[in-house]
Amino acid sequence: MTGSAVGVSFRPGELEVRPDGSGNLLGSRCGDCGAHFFPVREACSGCLSSNLETVPFSTEGVLYTFSIVRQSTPAFEVPYALGYVDFPEGVRIMGQISGIELDEIKIGMPVVLSLEPFGEDDEGNTLTGYRFVPAEAHSD
Length: 140
Fold this sequence. Notes:
Layout: E1 2-3, E2 8-9, E3 15-17, E4 23-30, E5 36-37, E6 52-56, E7 60-69, E8 80-86, E9 92-97, E10 110-120, E11 126-134, H1 135-138
Parallel strand pairs: 1-10, 2-11
Antiparallel strand pairs: 3-4, 4-5, 4-6, 7-8, 7-10, 8-9, 10-11
């Protein structure tokens, strides 16, 4: 996993950031039927159980689909790729795709979670968020 600046999660409760800069996306696992969800939930949509625990997800997945965003808010430089990534736990999570030229992105390519700085909070702490990068770029 890419360890950028260690900081405070941009999305508390959805992203665990460890002191060494590594981390995981967090979701829920149903203790009754085993289903996984992102983000964290209080009830299972499959069996309606409230027996859910917060669990870290894998850091590797496969790009299910993506779109090139050419118009966005001023906070994001365009164009950028936004995609859905399938994880081994059976969840599909949306995030930006980076570390690759836009015309080289392919559905089905392996990607890994990359923790990256996304600005600062009101106290000056680095906010850490996530993107997905190609697995082969991560192994270099």
